[in-house]
Amino acid sequence: MALNITDIKRIAHLARLEISEQEANQTLTKLTGILSLIEQMQAVDTTGITPMSHSQDVVQRLREDVVTATNQREAFQANAPILGNGSAEKAVDNGLYLVPKVIE
Amino acid sequence: MINSSLKNLSQMLTKKEISSVEMTQTFLDRINKYNPTINAYIALDTNKTLAQAKAADVRIANGTAEPLTGIPFAQKDIFCAKGWQTTCGSKMLANFVAPYDAHVITQFDNAGAVNLGKTNMDEFAMGSSNETSYFGGVKNPWDFDRVPGGSSGGSAAAVAARLCAAATGTDTGGSIRQPASLCGFTGLKPTYGLVSRYGMIAFASSLDQAGPMAKSAEDCALMMNVMTGFDERDSTSLNRPKEDYTRGLSNMQGAQPLKGLRIGLPKEYFADGLDANVAKVVQDAIAEYRKLGAETVDISLPNSQLSIPVYYVLAPAEASSNLSRYDGVRYGHRAAEYDDLMDMYMKSRAEGFGAEVKRRILIGTYVLSAGYYDAYYLKAQQIRRLIADDFTQAFKQCDVIMGPTAPSTAFKAGEKADDPVAMYLQDVYTIATNLAGLPGMSIPAGFSNGLPVGLQLMGNYFDEARMLDVAHAYQQVTDWHTLIPNLDKPNLVLPEGKV
User: Fold this and answer.
1) Is this model's pTM higher than 0.95 or not?
2) CA distances from B247 to B133, B465, B474 (A)
3) Among residues 42-81 of chain A, which lie with CB inside 8 Å of chain B?
4) Across chain B, what does the average pLDDT equal?
């Protein structure tokens, strides 16, 4: 499955990564190399093999449905990014995060 | 003092030969002197560090000291440490100050250990040379023109250069063991699930595992006692009885302490692609093990050559999912200029991530995208099972598996930086144990052209104590692990007979 430049741009969009024409071209070369490495898998017959997601066969633990975490909004929001577009303020207001308007 | 074992450092402290503040200051002075060149640490906070040392001195004075109390450690910058800059080697988190402690950090704090600082690493632990760090490369203390390996390159250089008593690392595909091999010290990646991943910034969650990076197997054992243990905040943390990893070390005395031990030698680990000088050092180490009473068994891990292709599907797939959280909204880098929300996401991520991280996000996104899941992700998970089954078969014939840790010694900075596939092959011998969830270890076994060579030990699930015994037995009769680089004359010449 050879990739082309359109594929790279589509994947970059899915991954929410802005990519320039030049970067897309460089990425195409590198990803093609990596995918040809990955292609070695196709030679293996895996009919009937159960996929392995974790090394230990353990089940998901459950816990009591009780509140355990305390509210640390101020501490967490100390790490808020800078708003940008000319503002050097943190992207928070009244305990909320500020993002561009998404609903008209 | 800088070469003393953790046990000796602890004794010096409890006998009041030195205070923790003095010991810590000695390491801080070394860091001030050498770190501007080596770049092992990317965050230092002398006030915080010395406050911990003072608190440790109080504990020692009032008789509540534990084995690691007062000893200064370096922490890989992948671990969140409250109030410390925690970047994971990325521009994305360059201004992130952790609001809470990782479980590993809490364990060291509870033990009274001192945190010297946060160590450099490949960005989001993606790399084998530390060259993908936003904060610059790290010098290999044995030769400043060469890389220390990665991704735990800062911790590796800090241990090798004695800029800490020992350090923590994490290992997703070899990130503790390959740098241990390239910098000449002892590193252990435990069984998946033994050390909590809580507060450890995620790369590939089904493979990531933290472990000790230290001067000897004995030091690693003491650190394992602190690092391991059940933590309900990590859904894959294993609830097992607490072990004392030092319990068998004192039995490794006498002429043949390893009598009866069966060492498996996988033929695939000694085939094409292995540097001839590295192979010679590894064979010499195995010969030493025979002298210690062990017998060797030829084994095969027939699917091991598939571990790199499988890894480069699974790890990027998990990474692309884990790293989707960096959107510029709540923390991390946000672009300075943007139009709408989509534009903000796209620009913030494009600016915040480096080239290798972006490549892996793109691979992961591709293999998980509609129509390709079965061909890539599912297929990789099936072969992962085959690779794990190979080990199950092998451990019916042997107790521990040995081979090289890395295919070569440390390479020159820049040599592989532009060729991702060549870089990926650095982990050809280490990835399989991550996929299987098994413990793996690297110990210093000698030198090739003045550069350290590591011997890899792979054990069965939860067999770390035996692996540490086996490593310790070798370190009782060899002195490779005691040799240190000359930082004032790097590109060194080793003593007679040690080249």
Assistant:
1) yes
2) 38, 8, 17
3) 42, 44, 46, 49-56, 58, 60-61, 63, 72, 75-81
4) 96
